[in-house]
Specification:
alpha/beta, four-stranded mixed β-sheet, elongated
Length: 267
């Protein structure tokens, strides 16, 4: 299982590298259109007191054997739920991953169940088709006024041995057109505002897909580390049992020799 997790980890890292090239080009286009704060990977959140309706999207795994990956995510999710409820916000939950879905169900938390197995669809192929369905669903809720903001709770992949639970807001409003650089070589037709409106769904899809990949990569890294630890513990236990067996066997041989020597002395 460690080898399988390692192979999947390398695959998702390759997917992430390819995606980052796409994201870089998309951000470059939006920068050329004069969008502010696109190059800075910084969200522009709504003020806390103005948030009345929140959609919380926790991302966990569909299976276990990945250490404290799911338990840490579950703790962070329930902590965030309690924080929003303490502020009096109208909270909706959209879990991704069977583990967090079962935890929410166990706690009698109502949730949207249409995207629980989204990770499987992303892994098997056609990721943007699956992700676009989620993005369209979120945009519809936002446009109807059912939600003010969207937050992801997921593991951010920092290194092979470190995956940090992160809360990230998804900015649903289209980026505003700022001042275009004087040396910008591009002329746009139709207007920059119309192009931004057309590119905005792609930007949202990219943000959601990037978050999914981050969580997916963290899951495989956590599973590989857990399996490596289990492998090491099994080897240590095998060494201890082998040593105990040899000691017991040596003691039995020693007792038999003592009995033989005692019999000769009596004769």
């Amino acid at each position: 299982m460690r080898m399988i997790a390692s192979a999947k980890l390398h695959r998702t890292q390759g997917m992430t590298e390819n995606f980052l090239l796409y994201m870089e080009q998309l951000r470059s286009i939006l920068n050329d259109l004069g969008c502010a704060n696109i190059d800075d990977d910084v969200d522009m959140p709504v003020e806390e007191e103005k948030k009345k309706s929140v959609l919380l999207i926790p991302m966990a795994s569909n299976s276990g054997l990945c250490g404290a990956f799911n338990s840490n995510l579950s703790k962070a999710t329930f902590k965030r739920i309690n924080e929003w409820k303490a502020r009096g916000a109208d909270l909706q939950l959209l879990p991704i991953g069977k583990k967090i879905y079962h935890e929410l169900k166990k706690d009698n938390q109502p949730s949207i169940t249409d995207y629980v197995t989204l990770m499987e669809k992303v892994e098997k192929g056609d990721p943007f088709e699956a992700v676009s369905q989620l993005t369209d669903h979120v945009l519809q809720l936002y446009q109807k006024g059912d939600i003010d903001t969207v937050e992801f709770v997921f593991h951010h992949f920092k290194s092979m041995g470190s995956q940090v639970v992160t809360v990230k807001e998804l900015v649903l409003a289209p980026p505003k057109v700022g001042k275009v650089e004087a040396d910008n070589p591009f002329l746009t037709e139709p207007s920059a505002e119309e192009l931004i409106q057309a590119l905005h769904p792609r930007l949202l899809n990219a943000e959601v897909y990037g978050t999914l990949l981050d969580s997916f990569t963290s899951e495989h890294a956590a599973r590989m580390l857990a399996m490596q630890t289990a492998d090491d513990n099994a080897n240590d236990l095998l060494k201890e049992l082998t040593l105990l067996y040899n000691k017991t066997r040596q003691q039995a041989i020693t007792n038999e020799l003592i009995d033989i020597m005692g019999g000769k002395v009596e004769q």
